[in-house]
Specification:
This is Enamine deaminase RidA (YjgF/YER057c/UK114 family). The chain is of the alpha+beta class. The chain has 2 helices and 6 strands, in the order βββαβαββ. It has one domain: RutC-like (60s Ribosomal Protein L30, Chain: A, 2-Layer Sandwich).
């Protein structure tokens, strides 16, 4: 059984793990948390592009995305506007979006994905 791990974070987690043709990307949050939810979402999705590339895949192969928003009613539309500009129309994944009490007050969005690797 082959498991590839990328970008370990101490003894806690790997930011990306590939097993049996699926890349699992851990929940990502914005580095600059002074931005609004649209700015934070753009940062997270740019980071997602980097991590998917390390695993040998890209956003067109995302199978499932999980999105956590600090304020789902207020932030769902602005987050979606950034998401819709980022994801290819012919590669829409399944997705769940929920409100969550995130790890810090200034984290407005967190996103995790699973993507196919290879054909």
């Amino acid at each position: 059984m082959s498991i590839q791990r990328f970008e370990p974070n101490g003894k806690r987690l790997s930011h990306v793990l590939v097993h049996k043709g699926i890349a699992y990307v851990t929940g990502q949050v914005a580095a600059d948390r002074t931005q609004d939810v649209a700015g934070q979402t753009a940062q997270v999705l740019a980071r997602m592009d980097e991590l998917l590339a390390k695993a040998g895949t890209d956003k067109s192969k995302i199978l499932f995305a999980q999105v956590w928003l600090k304020h789902v009613v207020a932030d769902f539309a602005p987050m979606n506007a950034v998401w819709e500009n980022w994801i290819p129309e012919d590669a829409l994944p399944t997705r769940a979006t929920v409100e969550a009490n995130l790890a810090a007050e200034n984290i407005l969005v967190e996103i995790a994905v699973q993507a196919a690797v290879g054909d």
